[in-house]
Amino acid sequence: MAEEGPAKVVALWGAEGGFVTPTTNTLRPPRVVVYGDGQVIADAVKTFKLTEAQVGETVAAMEKLLAGQPPTATPKPDAPMVTDVPTTVLAVRAKDGRLLEVRVPALDQVAAYYPKELPEAKKLMEGLATRATAEGTDYVATRARMVAETAPDPQGTVSAWPAGVPEPSGTVDPVWKKDLDEAATTAIVKAVPAGGENRQALFKTASGATFVVSWRYLLPDE
């Protein structure tokens, strides 16, 4: 089975929705994902390794914190109304092998109105993100996810579409997404080097259409 190897997700902290661009929403990786072999990847940008014991401790702690929580948490009735912010996603691989996911709307803004276990679970995962920033290495992969968004009034340098990278096809509404193989990933990384903010640039296709092209490395389970 595909998830029996190193790509088995055992704990995760991510975000969904909110007032973000279609490109951001399509490309957004988990803030932190922990795999069964100990690999931790933060924002698809930094990675480091946990020991087997540390993986076990992390999973056990997340299991305890998320036990009994509904699939979507609800704050206390007197919580202030918050809109246009991401929903926090917290997940852990349960003992029966299923990935237990809990979605927490506006957790950052109204944490005090939720059961204390939910902000504690997020804090635990934030600790891993901090470690990734402090001691992690750059995360790279052989495959990438590319998003192209139309740029009818481009501002900045527009380059010819990079050789070896698929051009948008069909309807682009509002973005066009493509998961790239190894050769195309090498080409897009060369055209839009990793490390730049948003890793994006303007390119014109053979048909004359201009797109803002963005990408990130795919995670092992994607």
| N- and C-termini, Cα separation | 14 Å
**Arithmetic mean pLDDT:** 91
Query: Which structural class fits the helix and strand makeup?
Result: alpha+beta
- Runs in which pLDDT lies below 50 for 5 or more consecutive residues are 1-5
Biggest sheet architecture: 7 strands, antiparallel
Q: Please tell me how large the radius of gyration is.
A: 19 Å
Overall 3D form? globular
- With strands numbered from the N-terminus, the spatial order across the biggest sheet is 6-5-1-2-3-4-7
| Total strand segments | 12
Bin the strand percentage. 25-35%
Helicity, as a percent range: 10-25%
Order of helices and strands: EHEEEHEEHEEEEHEE
Number of helices: 4
Structure description:
The structure is a single chain. This protein has 222 residues and is of the alpha+beta class. Helices cover 23% and strands 29% of the residues. The protein has four helices and twelve strands; from the N terminus they run βαβββαββαββββαββ. The strands form two sheets. It has a seven-stranded antiparallel beta sheet with strand order 6-5-1-2-3-4-7, with helices on one face. A five-stranded mixed beta sheet has the order 9-11-12-8-10. α2 runs antiparallel to α3 (117-135). The longest helix has 19 residues, at 117-135. The protein starts with 8 loop residues before the first strand and ends in a 5-residue tail after the last strand.
